[in-house]
Amino acid sequence: MALTGSCMCGAIAYKSDSDAAVTALCHCVDCQKWTGGAFTSNAVVAENDFSVTKGSPKHLYTRLDVMPGNIIIKAGGLDNGKANLNNKIDVEFYCRDRVSYLQAAEGAKQEHLFG
């Protein structure tokens, strides 16, 4: 099943020909500052399955050196209610920075830092 998503105004759109290989929450202070929220929710997809279908994005997705061959998509940009990541979080990163009013996601691996 493919994932599709876009920016708020719709000028940028993308798709992945496969579902997320990993779903993750990140509680690091960089993600908190970047989004203005307490954490980011992310879908990790294979780079070979990912394509931009409209526009020229600058910051709509992320590539990390520690995860070669993958694209990290912020779940909030996913279409059709997919931002809930099918109610399945595989891992939470930077749990040391998780805000005190949040609990661990049930069944998710808890990482003090990244990996």
From TrEMBL:
GO terms for molecular function: carbon-sulfur lyase activity; metal ion binding. The keyword Protease does not apply. Residues 3-115 form the CENP-V/GFA domain. Keywords: Lyase, Metal-binding, Zinc. It holds the Pfam family GFA. InterPro entries: CENP-V/GFA (IPR006913), Mss4-like_sf (IPR011057). Transmembrane segments: none annotated. The keyword DNA-binding does not apply. Belongs to the Gfa family. This is DUF636 domain protein.
